[in-house]
Fold this sequence. Notes:
The chain is an all-alpha fold. It has one domain. The chain is built from ten helices and two strands; from the N terminus they run ααααααααββαα. The protein has helices spanning about 5-25, 30-40, 45-75, 80-100, 105-125, 140-160, 165-175, 180-205, 220-240, 245-265, and strands at about 215, 220. A hairpin with a 2-residue loop joins β1 and β2 (about 220). The radius of gyration is 17 Å and the shape is globular. It starts with a helix and ends with a helix. The relative contact order is 0.22.
Amino acid sequence: MDPVLQYVSLFLTGIVAGTASGMFGIGGGCLMTPVQFWVYSAGGMDTTLATRVAFGTSLAVMLPTMLSGALGHHKRGAVDWKAAAPMGIAAIAGGLLGGTLAAHLPGILLRVFFALIVIVTAVQMVRHKPSALVCEPKGSTAIFIVLGFCIGIVSGLTGLGGGALLVPILVILLCYPIHKAVGTSSACLIFSSAGAVTAYIINGIGTTGLPAFSIGYIDLLTFSVLAVTTIPFARLGVRFAYSCSDQSLRILFACLQIVIGASMLLRI
Length: 268
């Protein structure tokens, strides 16, 4: 594959993924993972290995990206740290478990799971209609811990940060305002990504066929190309979230998720 096309594709993907991360409180893995899988498989890498490297590297990029986005939301008072902290700590353990399972499952199974998760959450985003009523967010420490652990497992298994599931849960089930749900999700995903990345590093050490400059299943070169755009554009995405119509942006992104999920299924 032409290296110029490869890096231009990753660079542009980072712009879109970073913006989406800040806007929606998601990790951006639903955008980064398919592009990386395409790059690696087009270069002749085994599809299962390509899937694991794409997942692991996407999660690694999410760490600084979500930190950038969470800081932007925090400055606007949109992060509920009482929920984000217990969810995040539990998500570390869930991410370790999910990442370890992913390192031992067939690539085709991971891609199907990834695609279905993306499509289901896209449908949820389209169907959800924010309530006009203002109510206090619900939830207890126990609920946040269980929720965080589950989100961590999903994060490790799919290479997604888990925000595409966490934001709808916070809004629909726990009555969070959309902006606070996005901000809280951003903070939680810092922790869940950290746990999953650790698992991908540990389980990938010693694997043959990895790209040069890799640590486990983390491709440091791809990480650098993506992170240089996702980090600053996450801040730009936060600004968009507070100046654009949430409903129209949610529908637009949901359509994009459906396209991405379908494209992953077509690769099976």
